[in-house]
Amino acid sequence: MLKKMTIALILLSTINLSASEKIEKLVLSGPVASVSHPLIHMIKTGALRDIAKKVEFRLWKNPDELRALTLRNRADFIAIPTNVAANLYNKGVKIKLLNVSVWGILGMITRDKTLKTLADFKGKEIAMPFRADMPDIIFEELVKAQGMDPKKDFKLKYMSNPFDAMQNLILRQVDHALLAEPAISIALKKTGSFPLKLVAPDLYRSANLQEEWGKTFKVEAKIPQARMSVIGDMILNEKVIKRFNEEYEKSLNWYKNNPKEAAEMIVEEMPMLDELGVQESIKHVQLNTVSAQDSKKDLEFFYKLLEKNNPKTIGGKLPNESFYSK
């Protein structure tokens, strides 16, 4: 009897020790874009319950909010554009790249179905979200490489986010926009449904910026656009990082393979999105979790272009080896 009680006490103490080792709260953060959607699945399914007592999602709506979250350590893991992560790292912020998961999310959407390439938009007014950040940066690099001047050859109308640009399209305030998924698919679904289709313009998918990138630079048709990063003191917690990486990859694969269920889950958390639009968007986004080390070659190609043409966007130089998680 005494032996059984001793074993029971040992087991109980082990359980209590395990619970006490859990993090009180783990904060995952990201935008409304596709890169964040696996985070929602991780939280809804309790994927990290073994390492944290509470896990919550914190939305950032624009680059300023993203930088504030990062600089003030108000998140532990954050979905972030690749150039912003490099910029923050080079300015001394405690941030480390874990993976790149979004390789294709940007495209042109237009009222004119005859426009097929970026060059076709020369002289046109284009709604552009996030001035001097990822969509604007990629557009600028592409048109420069194609022999055009982004300032002189296009009329760029800057918007605070992709959904403002989408609304401008729907309300006929602009005829063309550069958008990120799921905003493209949501715009097409909204304008194709009653009663909005009676007043909204016909809209068409146009130039795919990833395909333009591949043709222009003679590389694969993909761009390392968004990644998951770990920030602050969490950089030192190898156990938590390992578990996060494992579960993020599982959730991203679930998201890709279950578009209907994924859309329902995401819209429940982000009601500003449209369920059918999110479902449709999943097949148009290049989602693939590639580790920091394995994505380094693609990232450095991208960073070298920015270092040459617009070094401020990455903090003036390529990040060193310590930026890439092992």
What does this molecule look like?
- This protein has 326 residues and is of the alpha/beta class.
- 42% of the residues lie in helices and 21% in strands.
- It folds into two domains: 24-103 and 225-323, Periplasmic binding protein-like II (D-Maltodextrin-Binding Protein, domain 2), CATH 3.40.190.10; 106-217, Periplasmic binding protein-like II (D-Maltodextrin-Binding Protein, domain 2, 3-Layer(aba) Sandwich).
- It has helices at 2-21, 37-44, 63-71, 82-90, 134-145, 162-170, 183-191, 209-217, 238-257, 259-269, 275-281, 296-309; strands spanning 23-30, 52-59, 77-81, 95-104, 106-110, 125-129, 155-159, 176-180, 204-208, 226-231, 286-291.
- It has a six-stranded mixed β-sheet, sandwiched between helices. The protein has a three-stranded antiparallel β-sheet with strand order 8-5-9.
- Strand 6 (125-129), helix 5 (134-145) and strand 7 (155-159) form a beta-alpha-beta unit.
Main pleated-sheet profile: 6 strands, mixed
Q: For the terminal residues, how far apart are their CA atoms?
A: 50 Å
Determine and state the CATH class of the largest domain: Alpha Beta
In DSSP terms (H or I, runs of 4 or more residues), the helix count works out at 12
> Low-confidence runs (pLDDT<50, min 5 residues)?
1-17
User: Element order, helices and strands?
Assistant: HEHEHEHEEEHEHEHEHEHHHEH
Domain count: 2
Q: Name the CATH homologous superfamily of the largest domain.
A: Periplasmic binding protein-like II
Q: What's the number of extended β-strand segments?
A: 11
> Mean pLDDT score, rounded?
90
CATH fold field value of the largest domain: D-Maltodextrin-Binding Protein, domain 2
Strand content: 15-25%
Helix content: 40-55%
Q: Return the structural class.
A: alpha/beta
Q: Which strands sit side by side, in order, in the main sheet?
A: 2-1-3-10-4-11
Overall 3D geometry? globular
